[in-house]
Amino acid sequence: MSDSQTTRLIIDALAYTYGRGNCLFFEELLVSAGQVEQRLDAWSIDLSPEAMYMSIAFEVKASRSDLLAELKVPTKRLQGIQLCNQFYYVTPPELFKSVDEVPGECGWMVVENGIISIIKSAPYFTNPPPTWGFVASLLKRLR
């Protein structure tokens, strides 16, 4: 299976799990960062007050080489972390060789046969409200 097919299967599993009920799910969501455009692979928010509007950013990786390149640039995930309560890497099984490879500020989910398993829970962040640029990006997707 190609990396793009694996990525599509992972995104579909995330959309099914994190886009139901009171949740909204977005893939390839543009993050406004001034002059720099960056995209989150996926982002979800629970719209219920009981869940305190919890949001999760997902970085999908289908190959070990892509994952290792990503891990070498910790500032790349910072934008996603600032726009969510939890940040997860989502991969096929065994892309991380051990839980110790997962950065401390991140969690790790594995998708196998369309089923998501949380291998390492992400810490919970309390961040300031999103920027107007990010809100505009969300609203554009809802048109």
Distance between the termini: 34 Å
Q: How many helical stretches? A: 4
The percentage of residues in β strands lies in 25-35%
Look at the structure and give the mean pLDDT.
90
Give me the side-by-side strand order of the main sheet: 1-2-3-4-5-6
The total number of structural domains is: 1
How many distinct beta strands?
Answer: 6
Give Rg in angstroms: 15 Å
> Biggest sheet, open or closed, and with what strands and sense?
6 strands, mixed
What is the oligomer described by this structure?
A: single chain
Structure description:
With 143 residues, the protein is of the alpha/beta class. It has one domain. Helices cover 31% and strands 32% of the residues. It contains 4 helices and 6 strands; from the N terminus they run αβββααβββα. It has helices at residues 3-18, 64-71, 74-82, 132-142, and strands at residues 23-33, 36-46, 55-60, 86-91, 107-112, 115-120. Strands 1-2-3-4-5-6 form a 6-stranded mixed β-sheet. A hairpin with a 2-residue loop joins strand 5 (107-112) and strand 6 (115-120). The mean pLDDT is 90.
Keyword list:
32% strand, 31% helix, single chain, alpha/beta, 143 residues, 4 helices, six-stranded mixed sheet
Please outline what is shown here.
This protein is an alpha/beta fold and 143 residues long. The protein has helices spanning 3-18, 64-71, 74-82, 132-142, and strands at 23-33, 36-46, 55-60, 86-91, 107-112, 115-120.
Topology, please?
Layout lengths: L2 H16 L4 E11 L2 E11 L8 E6 L3 H8 L2 H9 L3 E6 L15 E6 L2 E6 L11 H11 L1
Parallel strand pairs: 3-4, 4-5
Antiparallel strand pairs: 1-2, 2-3, 5-6
